[in-house]
Specification:
about 0% strand, globular
Length: about 130
């Protein structure tokens, strides 16, 4: 699992297996241990990269304080909550940290959609992590 997207799929698989009571198909402790190790490698610790690069931030994996991943990344999650609070743009939205330079017309439309997606996820994350 080298990509954050692939790792996220495995994380969801583990959650679904547990919810469906089929986690007997694998060793859940080993699965959780490997997931925690992989997530730790993927989350970008250089917070300066969060603003200008498409990198993995704690919110990609952590959606609440109840997450099995939260204790390992509590400090970074708090930093990201502050980053989100302070990062709202002059138009009242958060801009994506990436763009589609090869597709300027498509990006003009997609950027608006991404801003909406980012806004919802940011607000839910800040509320879940900091309670405000």
């Amino acid at each position: 699992m080298e990509s954050m997207h692939e790792t996220f799929c495995f994380m969801r698989l583990g959650q679904y297996c547990k919810r469906a009571s089929v986690d007997h198909l694998f060793d859940p402790n080993l699965f959780e241990s490997q997931l925690r190790r992989q997530v730790s490698m993927l989350i970008e610790k250089d917070t300066t990269a969060w603003q200008t690069e498409y990198v993995c931030k704690p919110s990609f994996f952590i959606r609440s304080r109840d997450s099995i991943l939260y204790p390992d990344h509590r400090e970074l999650a708090a930093l990201e909550a502050d980053f989100i609070r302070n990062g709202i743009g002059s138009e009242g939205v958060w801009d994506p940290s990436w763009q589609w330079a090869e597709y300027p017309n498509e990006w003009a439309v997609s950027k608006k959609w991404w801003q909406g997606d980012i806004a919802v996820k940011n607000l839910l994350f800040v509320e879940a992590i900091s309670g405000s």
